[in-house]
Design goal:
Number of helices: 3
CATH topology: Lipocalin
Order of helices and strands: HHEEEEEEEEHE
Radius of gyration: 17 Å
Structural class: alpha+beta
Distance between the termini: 51 Å
Helix content: 10-25%
Largest sheet: 8 strands, antiparallel, barrel
CATH class: Mainly Beta
Strand content: 35-45%
Strand order of the largest sheet: 1-2-3-4-5-6-7-8
Number of strands: 9
Length: 185
């Protein structure tokens, strides 16, 4: 039985690790500083996925884990259910901690890429993040709103990297004040 389990895990390993790739045209930011990235980020825009479908007022809270990783707490409001939904995950650097390239898991052994490929280097006020391929994209900011010129710049950067920005969902932030668990830095 132990041999069968090992073979099964060895069979799964390429598929598990295959989700932590980097899309062509994307390069993680260098000189990344995790301590400056920790805290609350608001989702400004995203490409649609089933795990976020119908959610607005979406935010992510990043904090240190005791094992050296990063605790990820994603929250969003479902108007249809009139309730907050929450998912907790963990993230770890794939290569160097100075590279904005992490793997994140919300489901046990299964990890996906979390690649920061554009970042406000001076203040860490906005970021452009993708997953293992061009179907995953997020524009994040430290506040629920972002200047139009910055949105346009990030959208152009994502389009140049091969993302279909015409499919972006612009996230509403209209009940954030009613959520005491999320604090603006």
């Amino acid at each position: 039985m132990k041999t069968a389990k090992r073979l099964f895990l060895l069979f799964l390993l390429p598929f598990i690790n295959g989700c932590v790739g980097i899309p062509a045209g994307v390069e993680p930011v260098g000189d990344f500083e995790l301590e400056r990235y920790l805290g609350t980020w608001y989702e400004i825009a995203r490409l649609d996925h089933s795990f976020e479908r119908g959610l607005n007022n979406v935010s992510a809270q990043y904090s240190r884990r005791d094992d050296g990783g990063v605790r990820v707490l994603n929250r969003g409001y479902s108007a249809a259910d009139q309730s907050w939904q929450e998912a907790e995950g963990r993230a770890y650097f794939v290569d160097s901690p100075s590279l904005g390239y992490l793997k994140v898991s919300f489901f046990g052994l299964f990890y996906g890429s979390y690649i920061i490929f554009e970042l406000d280097r001076e203040h860490y006020h906005y970021a452009l993040v993708c997953g293992p391929d061009t179907s995953y994209l997020w524009i994040l900011a430290r506040r629920p709103e972002l200047a139009e010129r910055v949105k346009q710049s990030l959208t152009a950067r994502a389009a140049a990297a091969g993302f279909d920005v015409s499919r972006l969902i612009w996230v509403e932030h209209d009940v954030q004040a009613a959520d005491p668990a999320v604090r603006t830095p």
